[in-house]
Design goal:
Length: 537
């Protein structure tokens, strides 16, 4: 038992380096972003009359900026010495998004006089992910920079040792994101206590406090940049003391010794993508999401082909197979907002209980990453995806069963102990680690395989492909919510009149369909890779 703890837990602490801290602080800021998640859910449910289909479409546009990792990644390579500017830009966009929500809650009538509240909310919802993607691109590149190429004596570090460092760095990156989620989940449990019993004005004040506290997010990421600058200064000073000149120090320690040539395909493609996306979105063309998604996919696939042209056939087959597996796994649709509304209305899950579920999920996700660390390192991606798919399918059954009354039957036979909340807690505890596990070996493999002078570009293009899967997931979620319509009760705040009645009659079928899709598609992909020339990392 002690050997297992040492291999999976304590060894990660021993492998931690101070140079890892700057990107980890940017990732931590991303983890803290979930502080406003529960508040946002209840704000939309209680004060905005937005449908589940609209929210799924909004989710598509919120995930789409992650496709901008392509031109942004190349931009980071081109302006490597000044990449911190992008973190400041991202921090500014995040702050603006938070200030909009603070304005909606504290100066509602003033904001309403300028534009509809739903428009303000959509603007805030779109600005935040743009800010996070800008920071994430820089953080990804910083993870490569954080892994040293030489030891303190200036000797090159062995490639196998550096590979293990990359795995540690990527694992710690996920730990930072989830650790931030744990911190804010604890805060939500405390701050959301008894909020469900407050008046509308009292709820508004509680929500406002959380958005005000969220202003710490951009501050944390900026502090990471300041730390990176200090560490760089200290490293230069250390090698200068050994008699090396500035050029020799740069050659030894820098990821980018020479600035790569400008790739106009990437920058031009990113510009075209941005212009077309904004144009299609603002003009509100029919099928806007599908047009933009198709264009994004074409651009990303073209760039992947350009970047992998020089790879050996075996390496290319591994890259394509691994990326395809992760794409399909992440593209599985979700039930949408309707499932959460049902839990709130029918199961009585209030703000504090949802915060408690979030806390449990974050803690156990973190624990699962440590527990399955060697599992991820020793198994192929196909094996990992297959195992996670089976586990995810099994763990979706309790929620489906509760829709059909499982919690009522168990509560009646256990004296009320095994009720809806008990089942939700157990299910969350078991399901939590699944989502993050698949990403770590993928990220480590990209970081270790990318060309030296195109680390950020390569990382960004491959990450864009897998992140487009989230856009595909949102599109599929929108389609499913068009077929199986789920509505919660919407009441006019001023008149108290019910404008939309609650209807969860089709939710059960929706949950079943999503579960079947979530099992069949990944398993078919695993089989296809198993019996084709493609391979997985």
């Amino acid at each position: 038992m002690w050997r297992w703890v040492d291999l999976n837990l304590l060894s990660l602490g021993r492998e931690m380096r101070l140079s890892y801290m700057p990107p980890l602080m940017v990732y931590l800021a991303a983890g803290i972003s979930s502080l406003t998640g529960i508040v946002g859910t209840f704000y939309v449910k209680e004060r905005l009359g937005l449908s589940a289909e609209f929210l799924a479409a909004l989710g598509f546009w919120m995930t789409l900026p992650w496709a901008l990792k392509m031109p942004l990644g190349h931009l980071v390579d081109l302006m490597w010495r000044w990449k911190s500017v992008l973190v400041y830009l991202g921090a500014g966009l995040i702050a603006i998004s938070l200030f909009i929500m603070i304005g909606l809650l504290s100066h509602t009538e003033i904001m309403r006089a300028i534009a509809p509240l739903s428009d303000w909310y959509v603007l805030a919802a779109l600005l935040a992910p743009i800010g996070y993607i800008v920071q994430d691109v820089v953080a990804d590149a910083m993870t490569v920079e954080a892994v040293p190429r030489v030891d303190p004596n200036g000797q090159l570090i062995d490639l196998d040792v550096r590979k293990q460092m990359h795995i540690t760095m990527q694992t710690l990156g996920r730990v930072a994101i989830i650790g931030g989620g744990i911190l804010v989940a604890v805060a939500n449990v405390v701050l959301m206590k008894d909020v469900a019993t407050l008046s509308e004005a009292g709820k508004g004040e509680a929500y406002l406090l959380i958005y005000q506290l969220a202003l710490v997010i951009p501050v944390v990421s900026v502090c990471g940049i300041w730390l990176a600058s200090w560490l760089r200064y200290r490293e230069i000073k250390h090698f200068a003391a050994q008699g090396l000149n500035r050029e020799e120090i740069e050659t030894l320690t820098s990821v980018h010794v020479e600035t790569p040539a400008v790739n106009w395909w990437i920058l031009g493609g990113g510009l075209v993508f941005t212009v077309v996306s904004l144009g299609v979105g603002l003009v509100q063309v029919n099928g806007a999401e599908e047009i933009v998604f198709g264009l994004s996919m074409l651009i990303v696939l073209f760039l992947i082909r350009q970047l992998t042209a020089e790879l050996e056939n075996d390496a290319r087959n591994v890259l394509v197979g691994t990326a395809l597996l992760v794409f399909v796994f992440r593209a599985i649709p979700s039930p949408g907002a309707g499932a959460t509304w049902w839990m709130i209305d029918e199961l009585g899950f209030d703000q504090q209980f949802l915060a408690t579920l979030s806390l449990i999920g974050s803690v156990l996700t973190l624990a699962g990453m440590f527990i399955f660390r060697r599992f991820m390192a020793e198994r192929s991606m196909a094996y990992v995806i297959g195992a996670l798919t089976i586990a995810g399918t099994v763990l979706s059954l309790p929620i489906i069963s509760m829709y059909f009354g499982l919690h009522e039957w168990t509560a009646a036979h256990t004296g009320g102990v095994v009720d809806a909340r008990f089942i939700a807690v157990i299910d969350t505890a078991l399901e939590s680690p699944l989502g993050q596990i698949a990403m770590i070996p993928m990220l480590a493999w990209i970081a270790n395989s990318a060309p030296e002078n195109l680390k950020a570009t390569f990382f960004a293009v491959m990450a864009s492909f897998t992140n487009l899967a989230l856009s595909a997931s949102q599109l599929a979620t929108k389609y499913i919510n068009q077929i199986f319509v789920v509505t919660r009760e919407v009441t006019d705040i001023d008149t108290g009149e019910i404008t939309v009645p609650a209807d969860y009659s089709e939710l059960g079928t929706l949950l079943i369909i999503v579960t079947i899709i979530g099992f069949v598609l990944p398993m078919l992909t695993v089989l296809m890779i198993r019996f084709s020339r493609l391979r997985s990392a």
